[in-house]
């Protein structure tokens, strides 16, 4: 009888913990949907203590730390938040190496950190972004944002500055092959999977602008700029789009 009571108490405890975890994540999701990163973390972080190996939660936490970078005024604080985001993303990969979103999260975090990095670190991050994005696409070919990040990698590397390219040649003997043509294919794939995400459209237009294909650039830039903001980074994306449109108008 005593064993049955202990077993019942254990089952009750596990059930209560699962309920608490679900409620915390649900509350965090409400704030995540409104891009209230710090508020979301107030629920996600306690949930992590209840289930520290939950890959979906690790990805959610990584997302908050990555997104909040744009709200921080100081570069040092941005770096801390970005590195924390990357640490959670890498934990997600360690827990679930066959989960596309975990690898996608790594690529996103590295992409957020790269503008704050020195030339050598930029080169190292570029290789890591490519590896993570390719893995994410392989694990889930239907992930529009995985295709987008692969496109951004091709776009960024195809148009990299001469000084950085020269440094890469010294350090690594060169950079991996990348091209604007491949970037276009990736962005087109991303658009086909999710035509309502304006960043795909704007970056396709920016790629055409970099290629000197002004008519196509103008078409997609204007299309993207006319779409409603839905993601937290959409205003920043549109600022890039408007700058590119000035070059072709």
Itemize the secondary structure elements and their pairings:
Layout: H1 2-33, H2 37-50, H3 55-67, H4 75-95, H5 100-113, H6 119-139, H7 144-158, H8 162-172, H9 180-193, H10 198-211, H11 214-225, H12 234-248
Query: In oligomeric terms, what are we looking at?
Result: single chain
* Total strands: 0
**Gross geometry:** globular
CATH architecture field of the domain at 13-116: Alpha Horseshoe
User: What is the element string, with H for helices and E for strands?
Assistant: HHHHHHHHHHHH
The CATH superfamily of the domain at 13-116 appears as Tetratricopeptide repeat domain
Low-confidence segments: 7-14
Give a quick account of the main beta sheet: strands, pairing sense, barrel closure: none
Walkthrough of the structure:
By secondary structure, this protein is mainly alpha-helical. It has a domain at 13-116: Serine Threonine Protein Phosphatase 5, Tetratricopeptide repeat (Alpha Horseshoe), CATH 1.25.40.10. It is built from 12 helices and no strands. It has helices at residues 2-33, 37-50, 55-67, 75-95, 100-113, 119-139, 144-158, 162-172, 180-193, 198-211, 214-225, 234-248. Helix 2 packs antiparallel against helix 3 (55-67) and helix 3 (55-67) packs antiparallel against helix 4 (75-95). The chain is globular and about 55 Å long. Mean pLDDT is 90; it is low at 7-14.
Name the features.
mainly alpha; 12 helices; single chain
């Amino acid at each position: 009888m005593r064993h049955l009571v202990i077993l019942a108490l254990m089952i009750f405890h596990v059930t209560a913990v699962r309920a608490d975890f679900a409620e915390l994540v649900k509350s965090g999701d409400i704030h995540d949907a409104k891009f209230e990163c710090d508020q979301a973390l107030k629920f996600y972080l306690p949930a992590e203590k209840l289930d520290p190996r939950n890959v979906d939660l690790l990805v959610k936490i990584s997302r908050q730390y990555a997104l909040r970078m744009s709200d921080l005024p100081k570069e040092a604080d941005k770096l801390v938040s970005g590195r924390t985001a990357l640490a959670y993303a890498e934990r997600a990969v360690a827990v679930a190496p066959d989960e596309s979103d975990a690898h996608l999260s790594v690529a996103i975090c590295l992409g957020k950190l790269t503008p704050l990095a020195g030339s050598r670190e930029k080169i190292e991050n570029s290789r890591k972004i490519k590896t993570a994005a390719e893995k994410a696409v392989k694990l889930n070919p239907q992930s529009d944002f995985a295709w987008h990040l692969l496109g951004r990698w091709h776009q960024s590397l195809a148009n990299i500055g001469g000084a950085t390219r020269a440094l890469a040649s010294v350090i690594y003997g060169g950079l991996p092959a990348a091209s604007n043509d491949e970037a276009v294919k990736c962005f087109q794939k991303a658009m086909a999977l999710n035509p309502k995400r304006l960043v795909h459209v704007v970056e396709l237009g920016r790629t055409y602008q970099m290629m000197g294909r002004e008519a196509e650039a103008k078409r997609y830039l204007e299309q993207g700029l006319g779409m409603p903001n839905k993601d937290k980074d959409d205003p920043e994306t549109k600022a890039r789009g408007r700058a590119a449109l000035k070059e072709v108008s």
